[in-house]
Amino acid sequence: MSEGLTLGLAGLAGGLLGAIFFGGLGWTVRRGLRSPRAALWFLASGALRLSLVLVGFYFVGGGQWRRLVAGLVGFTVVRFVMTAPWRASASLVDRPNAEASHAP
User: Fold this and answer.
1) Residue 10, Cα to own-chain centre: how many angstroms?
2) Which residue in 30, 52, 61, 102 has the fewest CB atoms around it within 10 Å?
């Protein structure tokens, strides 16, 4: 198989791992905030997501640093894509109210 195709597939696999990781993170936050045992949800989900991603990168890398870097690039791209809505809503919350600064 050509090197470019192999690196492209490694990048796609890294993107899939990122989707699983950050999709699971979003699900955990929604579920954990409604649960009386939020700490258990966050700890168990974090351990499971981290384990899946580490094992996934072990197989994606296959002992070759270029494949590992391609997978990490795919993972990082998906991170920015999936967390963009959270960053946008957080910036709206952190922005001070313009009318409040003009109060008498």
Assistant:
1) 17
2) 102
E strand or H helix that includes residue 40? helix 38-61
Paired tokens of 28: 């955990």
From residue 53, how far is each of 19, 21, 36, 79, 103 by CA, in Å? 10, 7, 27, 13, 50
pLDDT in tens, 44-88: 999 999 999 999 999 999 999 999 999 999 999 999 999 888 777
Query: Could you give the dihedral angle defined by the CA atoms of residues 53, 54, 60 and 66, in that order, rounded to the nearest 10 degrees?
Result: 110
Six-digit token string for 27 = 């699900």
- Asked whether the beta carbons of 28 and 71 are under 8 A apart, the reply is no
Tokens of 69: 């870097």
Name the average pLDDT for the chain: 88
pLDDT in tens, 4-55: 999 999 999 999 999 999 999 999 999 999 999 999 999 999 999 999 999 9
Q: Is 34 helix (H, G, I), strand (E, B) or coil?
A: helix
